[in-house]
User: Which sequence fits this backbone?
């Protein structure tokens, strides 16, 4: 079994256009959530989100590419370019067949869907652009990355709602560990801040109109964001041979299904996922110093996750630090786990624990150390990253410092 390390990381989200910008914002506890700017905002009851500002795709992509790239693909490319540059990896013809891509997304080309539904239903047009299908399909970003980087190994897209990125990274980790691939690009993206996307989520009545306050007694729901996070995963031997800088080691992954309700989370499913990741990583509960929580800011998620952590970690739960960075960058749905993994890298590499901002009132149902409002200096050896999705699909990653 191969050891699997991370040698490159890239992102674009409401906190920053790069990893350094994002981590600095996390250190400062900066809020990336604000008023939305979009068509027909007056028809929405939710008018806030974690929207990426000042991103002009025409600066980075030519017109021919933009005809094929939905916003979610554009964001994926921005993150992948940073990750590949940091890794210093060159995918040669020899390496291409043992290199793959696994990406997570919940909605795929939502902007293309939204624009073309408007065109057909509102504007009364009878034709759409011939590239609409390849632009909106969920595997578009993964396919375009494989073309751009000459990747000929296993390439696919995972769509498991809010757990999509963690599933994608976990599956890529398993492929490298098992020897199926030497290198994998893995992560996820979503760009659902469209009129149709927000209107659909409004119907669930889980969205806040004011702020995302995970674990705070006065929470009022989740806030949607957009963005992408991409990582280069490779064998330790391969990274060592080419002198690559190693950001962290991926050491465990587990996924479970609640087999219960389509939207309500289940404590035992979360417990089994966390315990499974610990077992796969050959760690004891006491080895974990920090958990990046799913932490959506809804009552159902927060209470269930806290109870699951207390059950999975026993008495050590009171010594753990656990924060939700969604309070800063919003809920990126299928892309959220990839951006949240950056907080784990920061904890392991820099000894900085990202805070849960917006925390105002203690909740007796969430009586854990949620690192309220201010980042903290602390040395941790290993971390977990939780993702618990609609449909009862759970995915947990375990990492350790290198």
Assistant:
């Amino acid at each position: 079994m191969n050891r699997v390390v991370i040698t490159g990381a890239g992102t674009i989200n409401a906190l920053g256009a790069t990893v350094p910008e994002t981590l600095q914002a996390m250190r400062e506890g900066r809020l990336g959530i604000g008023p939305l700017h979009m068509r027909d905002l007056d028809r929405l009851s939710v008018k806030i989100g974690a929207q990426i500002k000042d991103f002009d795709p025409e600066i980075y992509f030519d017109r021919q590419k933009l005809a094929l790239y939905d916003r979610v693909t554009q964001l994926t490319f921005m993150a992948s370019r940073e990750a590949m540059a940091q890794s210093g990896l060159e995918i040669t013809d020899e390496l291409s067949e043992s290199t793959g891509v696994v990406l997570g997304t919940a909605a795929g080309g939502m902007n293309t869907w939204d624009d073309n539904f408007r065109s057909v239903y509102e504007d009364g047009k009878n034709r759409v652009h011939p590239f609409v299908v390849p632009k909106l399909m969920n595997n578009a970003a993964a396919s375009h990355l494989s073309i751009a980087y000459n990747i000929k190994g296993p390439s696919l897209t995972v769509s498991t709602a809010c757990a999509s990125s963690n599933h994608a990274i976990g599956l890529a980790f398993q492929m490298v560990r098992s020897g199926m691939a030497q290198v994998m690009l893995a992560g996820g993206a979503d760009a659902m801040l469209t009129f149709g996307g927000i209107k659909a989520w409004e119907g669930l009545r889980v969205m806040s109109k004011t702020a995302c306050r995970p674990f705070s007694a006065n929470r009022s729901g989740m806030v949607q964001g957009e963005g992408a996070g991409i990582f280069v995963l490779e064998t330790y031997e391969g990274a060592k041979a080419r002198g690559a800088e190693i950001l962290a080691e991926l050491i465990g992954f587990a996924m479970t299904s609640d087999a219960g309700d389509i939207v309500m989370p289940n404590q035992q499913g979360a417990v089994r996922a966390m315990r499974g990741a610990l077992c796969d990583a050959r760690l004891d509960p006491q080895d974990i110093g920090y958990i990046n929580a799913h932490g959506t800011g809804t009552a159902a998620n927060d209470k269930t996750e806290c109870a699951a952590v207390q059950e999975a970690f026993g008495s050590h739960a009171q010594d753990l630090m656990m924060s939700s960075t969604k309070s800063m960058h919003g809920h990126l749905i299928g892309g959220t786990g990839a951006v949240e993994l950056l907080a784990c890298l920061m904890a392991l590499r820099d000894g900085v624990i990202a805070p849960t901002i917006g925390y105002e009132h203690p909740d007796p149902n969430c009586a854990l150390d949620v690192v309220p409002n201010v980042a903290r200096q602390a040395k941790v050896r290993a971390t977990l990253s939780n993702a618990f999705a609609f449909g009862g699909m759970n995915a947990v990653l375990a990492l350790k410092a290198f």
The mean pLDDT is 98. The domain at 253-400 is CATH 3.40.47.10 (Peroxisomal Thiolase; Chain A, domain 1).
